[in-house]
From TrEMBL:
It comes from Comamonas avium. It is found in: Cell membrane; Endomembrane system. This is Copper-translocating P-type ATPase. Belongs to the cation transport ATPase (P-type) (TC 3.A.3) family. Type IB subfamily.
Amino acid sequence: ATPTSIMVGTGRGAELGILFRKGEALQLLKNAKAIAVDKTGTLTEGRPALTDLEVLQGFERAQVLALMAAVESRSEHPIARAIVEAAQQEGLTLPELTDFESITGMGVHAIADGQRVEVGADRYMRSLSLDVTVFDSTAQRLAAEGKSPLYVAVDGKLAAVVAVADPIKASTPDAIAALHALGLKVIMITGDNQRTAQAIAAKLGIDEVVAEVMPEGKVQTIERLKQAHGHVAFVGDGINDAPALAVADVGLAIGTGTDVAIEAADVVLMSGSLQGVPNAIALSKATIGNIH
Ligand code: ADP
Ligand code: MG
């Protein structure tokens, strides 16, 4: 491509809300064979809400919600806000909190009201040697509905299963159809539960799911996908997407995402919608494709 055609393409991108931070990205995008996409905040709104809370005998619903909300009030994860908001809506007073700790990709724990409280994924509970099988059928039903099940333990005893649901962005289904129309494979990468991810992927017609990925696992996943598919672009919004954005052939950040993701990306989609990805690829093909 000539410097002039890249300038024209970059200018056209800006009009469409697609910021090419590197001219090279405009040239590379047309070669993409697969698009890997982060789930939370990219395919979904990134604003989950609490939908279910089921406590075991010996525990009181409002008390468990207050304890877990107290712990989550210190976390910056989108899940945390959902739980804190639910407790606020029920008018609960949050107990005093000390010794908060967040374990990336797993969950959070603290001492609330003198009790040790743990909140997190099933793998977090297993790492604490807590058996969650009593909730297996409930968790499977919740996950099949596209909700993310989480567990709460109080003083070393399993207390409750909780679900949060994050709505799919209205623009996502058409964007995936447009990527398929361009002949691309669409792959979802998420730290969320396998079944939940599968349910959401099935609804969206996504081709491949890589779930329960720890934050540092996103980079390895992109490297594996490059081997399997050739040129791979990655789309993400979160702090933990930044390394994967850097390692992909082209990294595209959702413009409403975190600064860290935007800094690491080659392309920024100002619309905040996945539709920017097929638009950017079409632009790459139109600008670069017919020059050779
Ligand atoms: P993702 O944002 O894609 O779900 P993360 O690595 O941030 O990926 O989290 C992976 C999983 O760890 C979450 O789906 C959730 O089950 C659990 N988790 C992480 N942070 C929290 C938290 N603050 N409260 C409860 N669970 C959490
Ligand atoms: Mg995200």
